[in-house]
């Protein structure tokens, strides 16, 4: 057990103002592996002051130079790749192979993409007789969740820095160790003091203090819709800019004629990935009634290949969920699904066999799910897949769009044009066509209650800019 001290403020670690601490628990062993300081409003105030003081200098730094420092940040993350991966496996329970490839690997590429964008983006343009300047939005308060502990941080901090903003980060209390490594990487990269600051701590204390702080110009939040709503209200009341990246209940639509085996296997792998803790997980599968039974049987067969186990094992593909609370919530939702009439085809709420320690959940396939059921409407954030049936394509579209959320979706069809035509009518921010790959340059964000704003690529950069027009 390691007791970490300090908040990263104004270029270095300085003692926390209060004595409170939070524990970091390894979800596979249930052991406390570290403690970190629980930040207070005073720590947040120190960090915001440092970020404000650093803002004029950083905003005036030529974008190409900001790009060089972001390249150095990407290199620093790459240099600590293995340590980041093992840390994420320890504090989140992500299988080590996935942690290396995605959890630690993806942010290196995203940071690099913003190094390139800082250098190439046109921060000035001419519109008729006006020159339009794209200026930094100011001091950013970033509040991140635990499910992708480094990606969620980099997807906010890298574009903010590229835009010329300075940042105060409050990471999730479950996964602060990765955020601490990130802070060290900003120092190793040579970022000027105060440009990036870190305050660890609890949401209702440190997080809320950051969202409410008058010195913060823009709040960027990723997490639950419930908290996002509150942050949106606080930001709206103070007339601050706000970006919200919230939950999802994304539909995977398998149209008649699609490669059923491929579509279902990809869907199961998607929902099991990161133990189901991805906001864009395709958790509602819509299948034509003629193919429904076959699809459910295929899913059960595919899910059985993902036995939960030790995430440090390189062969592990399904680790524990992040916490006892999350495990209990997922199991409760599975029970609720069964109570409301869903058929548990495989998996279920019982603990997996042979695992007496760790917050494990069985990979679960629910069939006969109808649109009004809780498991069709609520984000479960566990390895649970719900199958719904449709009679024709119009009904498939109605069901796909019948959600308070609108983050992402997928369509499978024999013909790409048919899939694209269907995707155009879906009410969500991102749709994968016949298994299309994740693209880090394409905008990511939600329609409806999945959020406000976009992350990644140039759209993510624009979130952190404000425009000024000079009439000449
Ligand atoms: P959460 O929304 O409570 O926490 C996310 C972040 O917000 C954390 O850093 C937390 O400390 C902070 N926070 C909490 N309360 C706050 C407040 N009042 N003011 C300011 N900041 C606050 O999410 P959670 O409890 O970690 O997870 C709960 C559910 O959220 C999950 O089951 C899942 O459905 C959803 N979730 C979604 C995403 C996503 O990527 N969209 C990520 C994680 C969790």
What does this structure look like?
The protein is of the alpha/beta class and 472 residues long. The chain folds into two domains: 2-246 and 450-471, Aldehyde Dehydrogenase, Chain A, domain 1 (3-Layer(aba) Sandwich), CATH 3.40.605.10; 251-439, 3-Layer(aba) Sandwich (Aldehyde Dehydrogenase, Chain A, domain 2), CATH 3.40.309.10. It is built from 15 helices and 23 strands. The strands form six sheets. It has a seven-stranded mixed β-sheet, with helices on both faces. Strands 10-9-8-11-12-22 form a six-stranded mixed β-sheet, sandwiched between helices. A three-stranded mixed β-sheet has the order 1-5-4, covered by helices on one side. Helix 2 packs antiparallel against helix 5 (151-163), helix 4 (96-120) runs parallel beside helix 5 (151-163) and helix 9 packs across helix 10. Nicotinamide-adenine-dinucleotide (NAD) is lined by residues 143-147, 170, 172-173, 202-204, 207-208, 211, 222-224, 227, 230-231, 245-247, 279, 379, 381.
Brief digest:
By secondary structure, the chain is an alpha/beta fold.
Keywords:
single chain, 472 residues, alpha/beta, Aldehyde Dehydrogenase, Chain A, domain 1, Aldehyde Dehydrogenase, Chain A, domain 2, 2 domains, seven-stranded mixed beta sheet, six-stranded mixed beta sheet, 15 helices, binds nicotinamide-adenine-dinucleotide
- Helical element count? 15
- Outline the biggest β-sheet: 7 strands, mixed
Q: What fraction strand?
A: 15-25%
CATH architecture designation of the largest domain: 3-Layer(aba) Sandwich
Give me the oligomer status: single chain
Number of domains: 2
Strand order of the largest sheet: 15-16-17-14-13-19-20
CATH class of the largest domain: Alpha Beta
- Please tell me the overall pLDDT: 98
Proportion of helical residues? 40-55%
SS elements, strand count: 23
Which molecules other than protein and nucleic acid are bound? nicotinamide-adenine-dinucleotide
Question: Which fold name corresponds to the CATH topology of the largest domain?
Answer: Aldehyde Dehydrogenase, Chain A, domain 1
């Amino acid at each position: 057990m390691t007791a970490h001290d300090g908040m990263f403020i104004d270029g270095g670690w300085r003692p926390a103002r209060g004595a409170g601490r939070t524990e970091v628990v390894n979800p596979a062993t249930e052991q406390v592996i570290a403690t970190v300081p629980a930040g207070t409003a005073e720590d947040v105030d120190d960090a915001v002051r440092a970020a404000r003081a650093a803002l004029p200098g950083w905003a005036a730094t030529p974008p190409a130079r900001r790009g060089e420092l972001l390249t150095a940040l990407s290199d620093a993350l790459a240099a600590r790749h293995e340590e980041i991966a093992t840390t994420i496996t320890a504090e989140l329970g992500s299988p080590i192979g996935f942690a290396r490839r995605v959890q630690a690997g993806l942010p290196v590429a995203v940071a690099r993409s913003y190094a390139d964008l800082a250098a190439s983006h046109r921060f000035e343009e001419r519109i008729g007789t006006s020159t339009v300047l794209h200026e930094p939005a100011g001091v950013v308060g970033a509040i991140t969740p635990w499910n992708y502990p480094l990606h969620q941080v980099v997807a906010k901090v890298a574009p903010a820095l590229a835009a010329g903003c300075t940042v105060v980060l409050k990471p999730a209390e479950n996964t602060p160790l990765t955020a601490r490594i990130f802070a060290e990487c900003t120092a190793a990269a040579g970022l000027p003091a105060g440009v990036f600051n870190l305050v660890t701590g609890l949401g209702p204390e440190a997080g809320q203090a950051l969202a409410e702080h008058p010195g913060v110009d823009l709040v960027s939040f990723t997490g639950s819709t419930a908290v996002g709503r509150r942050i949106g209200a606080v930001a709206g009341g103070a007339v601050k800019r706000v970006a919200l990246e919230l939950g999802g209940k994304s539909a995977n639509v398998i149209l008649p004629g699609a490669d059923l085996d491929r579509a279902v296997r990809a869907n199961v792998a998607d929902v099991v990935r990161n133990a189901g803790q991805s906001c864009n997980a395709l958790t509602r599968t819509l299948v034509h009634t003629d193919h429904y039974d076959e699809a459910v049987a295929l899913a059960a067969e595919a899910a059985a290949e993902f036995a939960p186990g030790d995430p440090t094992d390189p062969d592990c593909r399904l680790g524990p969920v992040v916490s006892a609370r999350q495990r209990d919530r997922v199991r409760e939702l599975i029970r609720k699904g069964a109570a409301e009439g869903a058929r548990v085809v495989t998996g279920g709420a019982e603990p997996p066999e042979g695992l007496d320690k760790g917050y494990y959940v069985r990979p679960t396939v629910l069939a006969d799910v109808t649109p009004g059921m809780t498991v069709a409407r609520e984000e479960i954030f566990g390895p649970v897949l719900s199958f719904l049936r449709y009679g024709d394509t119009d009904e498939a579209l109605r069901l796909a769009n019948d959600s308070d959320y609108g983050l992402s979706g997928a369509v499978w069809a024999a013909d790409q044009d048919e899939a694209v035509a269907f995707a155009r009518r879906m009410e969500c921010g991102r749709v994968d066509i016949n298994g299309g790959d994740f693209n880090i340059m394409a905008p990511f964000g939600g329609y409806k209650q999945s959020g406000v704003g976009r992350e990644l690529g140039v759209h993510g950069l624009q979130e952190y800019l404000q425009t000024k027009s000079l009439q000449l």
